[in-house]
Design goal:
The structure is a homodimer. Chain A is an alpha/beta fold. Helices cover about 30% and strands about 25% of the residues of chain A. Chain A folds into 2 domains: about 200 residues, Alanine racemase (TIM Barrel, Alpha-Beta Barrel), CATH 3.20.20; about 120 residues, Beta Barrel (Lyase, Ornithine Decarboxylase, Chain A, domain 1).
Chain lengths: ~375, ~375
């Protein structure tokens, strides 16, 4: 017997395939219009089937957040991979192994100390690494600011040390804190112009800078022009989530990932239904807490995906979720959602919720489910 | 070559074995003094080696939060198992399968509707389930309050329906919101007396109630007497964490679980070191946020486990952690923690952090590491 939404065990991580395909097409079309290559960040899904759908949609290469992802995707035929986390010296051996097996793996640095470690290891082992310099265009995390002396210093360490200077990359992660089109467009332009400025400084110094890579889901979707940029990276757009809904780059109806759950109890006088999706299923991510609308641990939908407005997962223990209505308690909740009722919960943060599951259940429009594995760990 | 803290890949979930053994001994000794059986909740570790250490320490039976845990522990010879989450009707088949393979699996209900589903399934399949009634002694989640009519109603549905009334159980989860010995002792007494009262009501009605099961780590450790209680359950005590430190039932030096991490970059002017443990390693749990001391995403320690007072993981993205000093920025941080430096981070919530890893690295006092698997998913 094939599994269906009525028979599969819960909690389960559902991917609504038609929504995912729509999200992929939307992003790719935007990138095509802007005239840039698109390199999806596969840390969101960690799933071969999802990355293949992105590639089939027109993506060129992938971005990864761990060398385990690089390993797994390379084993499935993805050869153009950017490891977009600053290189730790102890991982250089693994990176070199991947390259020597045929993986075009780009690595990242944002400081003289780590650049020197790359050069030293590369020289000792006769390996010419492709290295991108991480640029900080919004102050949210790592990278060198476009005007800093360190930018040229790092570039010279790499170049003079015999490494291949692949280019510059930046990620405007602070776009996640915005929620108006104007602010997002401005952040996209700040991300673009800062990264292009860094590239220009390298070129002005006679250094090569083939790649100018920018991106986050909000800035990718809101950028009006990407002059000087060669590629864009984005991850969560493939599923979207409630954080992205609050930022304003999708609606609830675009969210392709949800958690299928079962009602296991009630506290009727409090207006609570207890479901079998706690934080182990949803993750502890409370990304909407400080946004314009707080969805608790998630937005409740009927099993067919219809948003049940006002019903949220208001609390979560490890394997228990508390489902309630915002505002006045729904004292008829036990009749509305009897024991055994199946519901879907839209997540705050698709990357975090997906990571709680060893596999996805990919739902087709005919109601059939297909199991898609995902990687866990490092 | 055997792995050591200097060679193993990061992030890694370390268990300091001597601390874990001390935590196990402390809890078991307390239970022995109070004259009750101890049934650890293995949802914290989801690890056979940890549960065996608890059993070797004197524990009798285990508590699980999913049937997958029941399955995995049963396969390793644990036969006395309480599934401490309200029974969903669609899981009765799996529960029966486990019982028929020799697992003494107890299941839970807290309402007439679910009790009827258990009876109906049991009768249709000739199975006499062992069923405990969940009692609500603190209003934090599920269960029937000791004085509610529903208590006897559910008991009669089960008894008259031919099921075995195993007893009553409660979990005072709201103990996690307290942080003084007085309040914790009072909550332990509230948990005990409420559960014993529920048991008494069943016995007064001529029903059997062999098991009176209570517990949470804070109440188990702070209870002064447990008259009428037959067994205690607790989970997180085996590792402890910063939430438990703030509640007041352990110190930082008791915390047996930490995340080994590597410094991968700096923003020296901001006083930041960037490490390779983001929320994918630590989890998104911010359990100390509303407690007496907020540790961000975790307390930083040197690689040998010494607490570096004032240094916390102040921010976390998926694979990036931002490490900084509380108060004035440490502008000498790049020299203090150069690229490649290894550190340990104590977690807010051991159950959530452990769940991010496919395995633990168990550290012996001689510095050797042993890999202990843990289960993932449902």
């Amino acid at each position: 017997m094939n599994n269906t939404l009525a028979t599969i065990d819960t909690p389960a991580a559902l991917i609504e395939r038609s929504r995912m395909q729509r999200n992929i097409a939307r992003m790719q079309q935007r990138m095509n219009e802007l005239g840039v290559r698109f390199r999806p960040h596969v840390k969101t899904s960690k799933c071969i089937a999802v990355a293949k759908a992105q590639r089939d949609g027109g993506a060129q290469g992938i971005t990864v957040s761990t060398l385990k992802e690089a390993e797994q995707f390379f084993a499935e035929g993805f050869t153009d991979i950017l490891y977009a986390v600053g290189m730790a010296p102890h991982r250089l051996q693994h990176a070199m192994d991947l390259r020597r097996r045929g993986c075009a793996l780009g690595i990242l640095t944002d400081g003289v100390e780590s650049a020197r470690a790359i050069v030293e290891f590369g020289r000792a082992n006769g390996e010419v690494f492709d290295v991108l310099i991480e640029v900080d265009t919004d102050g949210h995390r790592s990278g060198i600011r476009p005007e800093e002396d360190a930018l040229l210093e790092v570039a010279h360490v790499l170049h003079d040390g015999g490494m291949r200077l692949g280019g510059v990359m930046t990620h405007a992660g602070s776009s996640y804190e915005l929620d108006t089109p104007e602010a997002l467009r401005a952040m996209a332009e700040q991300e673009r112009s800062g990264c292009v400025r860094a590239a220009q400084r390298l070129r002005d110094a006679g250094l090569s800078c083939p790649v100018v890579s920018v991106g986050s889901t909000p800035t990718a979707l809101m950028a009006e022009a990407l002059e000087g940029v060669t590629e864009v990276r984005a991850g969560v757009y493939v599923f979207f989530d409630l954080v992205m809904r609050n930022i304003g780059v999708c609606t609830e109806d675009d969210i392709a990932l949800s958690v299928l759950t079962t009602v296991i109890g009630h506290q009727a006088d409090k207006g609570w239904a207890i479901v079998d999706s706690g934080w182990m299923a949803m993750s502890r991510d409370r990304g909407t807490q400080k946004q314009k609308r707080d969805f608790g641990y998630g937005q409740v939908c009927s099993v067919d995906g219809t948003v049940l407005d006002g019903y949220v997962l208001s609390g979560a223990n490890q394997e228990h979720g508390i489902l309630s209505r915002e505002g006045a308690p729904d004292t008829g909740i036990a009749a509305r959602f009897p024991i055994g009722t199946r519901l879907r919960i839209l997540p705050n943060h698709a990357c975090a919720t997906g990571a709680q599951f060893p596999e996805y259940q990919a739902l087709s429009e005919d109601g059939s489910l297909e199991t898609w594995g995902r990687f866990h760990g490092w």
